[in-house]
Amino acid sequence: MNDIRIGQHLIGPDHPPFIIAEMSGNHGHDLDKALRLVEAAAAAGAQALKLQTYTADTMTLDIREGEFFIDDPSSLWRGHSLYELYQKAHTPWEWHAPIFERACQLGLEVFSTPFDASAVEFLESLGVPCYKIASFENGDLPLIRQVASTGKPLIMSTGTATLAELVEAVAAAREAGCRELVLLKCTSSYPAEPTDAHLLTLPHMAELFNCQAGLSDHTLGTAVAVASVALGARVIEKHFTLDRAEADVDAAFSLEPQEFAQLVKDTHLAWQALGKVHYGPTNKEKKSRRFRRSLYIARDMEAGERLTLENLACVRPGEGLAPRYLETVLGRTVNRAVKKGTPLSWKLI
């Protein structure tokens, strides 16, 4: 499982998690706000910014009834038709170039999720460094094949897909030329419950598909994302908003700038804490070994006097023989006069 390069960043176990800020529709159809989102993502420490590239017409039909209308009481988007929702949420294609330019100026990798063939062609013209396949598109094998044929790294969310469907999607990608694949464990409910995250899937998925694994996280807060690092998440994607109170399309389950900055910090610390399999004191701990218990002379002794529980003590610090030698030295004699507080050593016996 080799490292994957996206722009200036390497993705793999020897590198901090690659953190993606997902803009989605949180720009509120205001280009100035979209650019401020880019600036805030960079300031928060994200490594990448991601858009979604589609139009309402490439996503669905303009129908306001039946399965084309959202009437689920638990949905954030209840009362909208699918067409209306995608009209509201889409990022106009003419905005992509200025958003990409601002992101590049700020050192962010910037790419997008295409939803149809025309979006892939458009994004190729912008020179994206990689592609993302959304959860609801991981069954669109023609789209996956087209994206894979570009030869660029492919990040794919697993939400809603069965294992058999993932096998089919990964096979389609690899057969079409994908050599660098990241699968993101994803729960496609908004917001998602932590109990539905099933993070133990991460190492299993990485081994099963011989790929890098990560998390596309729709839970509230940062705890689930931070926990995922311990299970091998190399990429973490979170939706990003300037202010949840502005109630943009995905704001309810998005992180605000200060929260995103904390996510970046905490996931980096979690990655650092993983380290490697290690026993024994670290370099910094070696100085602390002197605070372990050891054997000390507990009262003044004359040469030839025997060591007993009355004149020998197991105390801190750790300059004397280790406590495991207590039974060995009891009854032995000291070869010189020693004062109380002398660390016991073999040369005294």
Automatic annotation (TrEMBL):
EC numbers on record: 2.5.1.97
Record keyword Ribonucleoprotein present: no
Domain AFP-like, residue spans: 294-349
Keyword terms of this UniProt record: Transferase
GO MF assignments: transferase activity
Gene3D superfamilies xref list: Aldolase class I, Antifreeze-like/N-acetylneuraminic acid synthase C-terminal domain
Pfam families referenced in this protein's UniProt entry, alphabetically: NeuB, SAF
Annotated protein name in UniProt: Pseudaminic acid synthase
